[in-house]
User: What shape does this take?
Amino acid sequence: MAADVRMERPRFPHGRVLETGDGAYARAYSLLNESSALSSARAFRTMQARPLFPASTRLSLGLLLLLPSVVQGQRATRATEPPYDVLITRGRVIDGTGTPAKRADVAFKGGRIVRVAARITGAARDTINATGLIIAPGFIDPHAHISAIAEQPDAQNFLRQGITTIFNSLHSLDQPYPLGAFLDTLRIAPNTLWTAGHTWARKRVMGTQNRAATAAELDSMRALVSRAMDGGAFGLGTGLEYIPAVYAPPEEIVSLAQAAKRPGSLYVTHLRDEGVALELALAEAIDVGRRSQQPVHVSHLKSTGKANWGKSTAVLAGFDALNARGARISFDVYPYNAYSTYSDVLFPGWVLADGQDSVSARLRNPALLARVRREMRDIFEAQTGGTASSVRFRTMPTAPEFAGKTLAEYLTARGQPSSLDAAIDALIALQRDGGFTAIVEAMNERDIEAFLTHSAAMVSTDGDLVTPGKGFPHPRSYGAFPRVVSYYVGQRKLMSLEAAIAKMTSVPARTLGLLDRGVVQQGKIADLVLFDPATFADKATYTDPHHYAEGVVHLFINGQAVIRDAKMTGARPGQALRRAP
Assistant: This one.
């Protein structure tokens, strides 16, 4: 391993080159692999010299005689006002800290929890009998794609999972600009958090050019990132496996992360590679954190490609060793063996520069096709399960009838074999015509379980805002959180329900600096989910994805019900959370 790290220019499988700089990558790589009353005489005389009220108003002064009765009535109203807005009784509280569940009542008022006790008496505007239900903190999703939240403000597919707060990490999607002004306009159901988007900033300044930024371009990107941070972003978000971020050298990322640094900020990344060069990509992320003096959060940690299965052991040992030495590294996981992304990840980065016309021209150039095919063979093995059946189309503009079908089924329908060569040729033709999105089965269950059960792990959806019956989404958009409970807790028994809930609540709250959320505790904000542990489950599958999760009976966000008796209320109490200055 050490010999590979000392190479002058380590190369990622997409043909991207990473400079090793001062050796920090090598050190991290090695560790990853090792384990005011007015009162004056003047004022008084002035008031004596002129009437206090105009004549038209003096006629009404008799009304002032009514004031004592009005005040008395207000006092009576306050005296009879219920002490609680909502009182939840007879439930089992899992408070989010990982401690055992306990029988308790929970009361909240004005959007905050005011009491948690074995038994609470007193009147409430609304009382809920939670017999048979779990009362937990609202779930926090540390990574999802919700840039279209203004158009889909209810985010029902997230709420039905018990999610009350969503972090839009902006790996590949565009960032609203200016971010602060956009956040001011949001009227939505869930709470949201946002990053300053690197991919968006680079595209705005440089388009999709395959080159390093000039000093002036870098200054422009830094200004965009800084403005987003001043607008409330929680940190810089990168998606280094996507165009055009893939063309950014490490020094660009470090410079932008430094521009993003604020009290409480963090660096959030979709790694440059998640398979064959996973360790090196992690080392790069860790070095960005070290040089920008910020914690690092890795989104959807995984090891993709059959040839890379089993890397979880070394990667997690490396995380533990680095954190023990003072590094601050966290990660999230979604509980599926397939990822969902653009077809771009199956092609060498150099092919994808400068827009679709340039991509199409390269893929029609006979002089380049041999190189493309050769490099794609390695990429296919590193990014998929190794077979054409492991790639399932989500959207394919040139052949929409194949949405939900696999690449193998596509080949068969065209009378072609499901061989690697045939698969690559089909992928080239599809990319030449505009590309597609796909669900790719490329992860191993043992790695998923190892990542998920690690003490630092959080649960994420990596999901999208979806509309039932529209398109062919990854089931994670509908079911990631309940799947952890129903499958990994209920069936596989890999962890306790309390431990799983902590991964969905207090752990992400602590990582993101949401100190008044994530636990059921007096004084905390009343983001609460009440679910039936016997029925809380995901219903979406790869082949039949459009099914909401079941089992969430009541859901409160900032003290207001967004789901009541398993029905959406239409309330939109969500807040655009901003990093505390």
Summary: Residues 140-337+443-519+533-568 form a domain with the TIM Barrel fold (CATH 3.20.20.140).
